[in-house]
Design goal:
290 residues, Arc Repressor Mutant, subunit A, D-Maltodextrin-Binding Protein, domain 2, 12 helices, disordered C terminus
């Protein structure tokens, strides 16, 4: 029967190019090493090494075994090491609104991974309320929120304030305008927006209520890709956060800032207060706890 030890011995002989040097590396006698290689050759039914006065070199069969088994044993060793140290890999469970997970979270993934010390698990929810509940009941360690309210037992740390952009087909008359007014958008345009519950919708609703106007919402959808599909068709225009809007790569769609009465959303990270010193350093930038 072929043993893992025999394979390791053979690989080391090929690496060293010499039975003597390999025996020194393996801390066994040269006769014992030679005997183990001979047993391997007998089990495989072929010669694996050419012996000469300079040392040894692999036969074609030996080279095939070396090339295939080197990677296999490296992966074997990594797996064994991972299993032995499994408890040392911490599962970091992160929840977030869909567009924050897609467009905002990636910039922090390297820090969150902590050079492999954390296994980052990401999940999405449709509302801040669901995310906060997940944090409270232990489903999440960290959550990403939009326009979050202060919480009694949870630290809510603002990370970024970003404007909403107007997104429309390049054939739309807005494409020729330098200044785009929020009032003009909500009073004259057909809007294709995210479906409630949605913090972006809440920002739009709040501003419309202050201005005492009722927007013409013709379609409500869950996914950004769906919004862009209908906007591209000319079924309406939409309002998206800047990190989402600036990532659009569709030549049929234009993205513009709202120059008069801009609307903003605030992106925050939330965690249990006792975890702030542990997790907050993973998020760079100026922050304050609310």
């Amino acid at each position: 029967m072929i043993s893992l030890e025999q394979i390791r011995y053979f690989l080391e002989v090929v690496r060293c190019g010499s039975l003597n040097r390999a025996s020194e590396q393996l801390y066994i006698s040269q006769p014992s090493l030679s005997k183990q290689v001979q047993r391997l050759e007998k089990e495989l039914g072929c010669a694996l090494l050419h012996r000469n006065y300079d040392g040894v070199e692999p036969t074609p069969q030996g080279m095939l075994l070396y090339e295939r088994m080197s990677g296999v044993l490296d992966e074997f060793d990594r797996t064994i090491d991972h299993v032995r140290n499994f408890e040392e890999v911490h599962q970091l469970r992160i929840g977030g609104l869909g567009n924050l997970v897609t467009y905002f979270l990636p910039r922090y993934m390297e820090s969150l991974n902590a050079n492999g010390q954390n296994k980052v698990i990401v999940d999405t929810r449709l509302s801040n309320r669901e995310l906060v509940e997940g944090l409270e009941n232990g489903k999440f360690d960290i959550v990403l929120l939009s326009n979050a309210e202060p919480q009694q037992n949870i630290a809510v740390i603002p990370l970024m304030t970003e404007p909403l952009y107007v997104v429309f087909p390049v054939t739309h008359p807005l494409f020729q305008q330098k200044d785009i007014s929020f009032m003009d958008i909500v009073t004259h345009e057909r809007l294709v927006l995210y479906k409630d519950p949605c913090t972006i919708r809440a920002s739009i609703r709040k501003q419309c209520n202050q201005m005492k106007v009722t927007p013409n919402i013709v379609m409500e959808l869950d996914l950004t890709e769906s919004l862009l599909g209908y906007v591209s068709r000319g079924d309406g225009i939409t309002l998206l956060p800047s990190i989402v809007a600036k990532g659009i790569q569709m030549p049929s769609i234009a993205v513009r800032e709202i120059s008069r009465i801009p609307i903003y959303r605030e992106i925050s990270v939330a965690m249990r207060k006792e975890d702030v010193s542990l997790y907050l350093p993973m998020f760079s930038g100026d922050t304050e706890i609310s």
